[in-house]
Amino acid sequence: MDRLALTGAWQRGAALIVAMLVAALAATVALSLAAGQQQWFSMVEQRRDQVQAQALAQAGVQWARQILFEDARTSRLDYLGEPWALPMPAIPIENGSIEGRIVDAQGLLNVNNLAATTSVGTAERARFERLFARLGLPPATLDAIADWIDPDSAPRPTGAEDAWYAAQPVPMLAANQPIVRTAELALVRGMSAATVSALAPYVAALPEGTKLNVNTAPAAVLAASLNGLAESAVPGVIADRAKKPYSTLPEFRARLPDGTTLDKEEALGVSSDYFIVTVRARQGATQSQARALLKRGGGGWPVVLWQTLE
To answer: Is the pLDDT of residue 291 over 60?
Structure first.
């Protein structure tokens, strides 16, 4: 074969190889673009679901406001047999679900009452001491909580003020103002994560001076609010309340077991103004949760004092 023929064969072979390389490159680019497009579609879909889940969760808070508004128009009492107190189970919706519940915040012990110098503050301290004993929590932390809330710089016997917090590995200062959300308790001296978690179902952070609703308080809180109530008698009190809510404090007192007394009757009530709402929504694989503290009163829709969206 002469040189010219060899050169032609080589060129044809090279051209074939180049064509194959170009085809392979084109296929790779096409696959890359397809993968990128699929990833983009997935991100858009996930973001869409996230926005929709958040919108549903926020709509659930408005649902709670309406229920509480309607309740105030029809009843002067607040008790666990009312519609607002019934948890909303997970309701299927297109591509997801929504569920929620309303908790009477005045059925819980108010941590901000611990700093009060009135008789309400004294009564609240006694309730917290009983609750801590019931839960096996360190009572010394009560002074630290009160110091965190009160406006002065004088530490209580087992409390802590600015000097103690400033000397910690992560320096800070005491808040010296009411707690807004109970999660803040994790910053207080002696309040471990386990302590805060154990306390969470029984406490709320509300304006100082609020009354405890005896119709909605959990068994542990109700037991901590009474003197002389035997542990064995607690289920009976809860069962009696479920049959018929207390319409007045004198009625509450009259229906208690013999030997049981109240600390401060003026610190108790049978109705509530503050409620905690939790709503969970799911869209596709995305979930969102809204939590809010609502204040009812004045005849209008409950006011949102704070709201979180996760």
So the answer is: yes
What percent of the chain clears pLDDT 90, i.e. is strictly above it? Answer: 59
CA atoms of 187 and 150, how far apart (whole Å) = 15
Average pLDDT (33-45) is 53
- Residues 56, 114, single domain; the answer is no
* Residue with token string 């209580």: 156
Q: How far is CA 230 from CA 129, 224, 258, in A?
A: 16, 11, 10
Domain check: are 181 and 248 in the same one?
Answer: yes
Report how far residue 207's alpha carbon sits from residue 179's, in angstroms, rounded to the nearest whole number. 9
Query: Considering only CA atoms, which of 102, 83, 100, 82 is closest in space to residue 91?
Result: 100
CA 181 to CA 98: how far, in whole Å? 24
Which residues neighbour 9 within 8 Å (Cβ) at sequence distance 6 or greater? 1
3-state secondary structure 104-151: EHHHCEEHHHHHCCCHHHHHHHHHHHHHHHHHCCCCCHHHHHHHHHCC
Do 41 and 117 sit in the same domain of this protein?
no
Whether residue 182 is predicted with pLDDT greater than 90 in this model: the reply is: yes
Cα angle value 98/103/105 (rounded, 5°): 145
Per the structure, the count of domains in the chain is 2
Report pLDDT for 22.
53
Query: Both 157 and 191 in a single domain?
Result: yes
SS3 281: strand
Its sign, for the CA torsion 79, 83, 84, 88, is: positive
Shared-domain flag, residues 24 and 120: no
Is pLDDT of 189 > 90?
Answer: yes
> Can you give the residue range of the structural domain that contains 228?
108-269
pLDDT band at 40 (very low <50, low <70, confident <90, very high): very low
Residues 238 and 286 reside in one and the same domain: no
Name the least confident of 8-17, 63-72, 104-113: 8-17
Stated pTM of the model: 0.82
What is the CATH classification number for the domain harbouring 127? 1.10.40.60
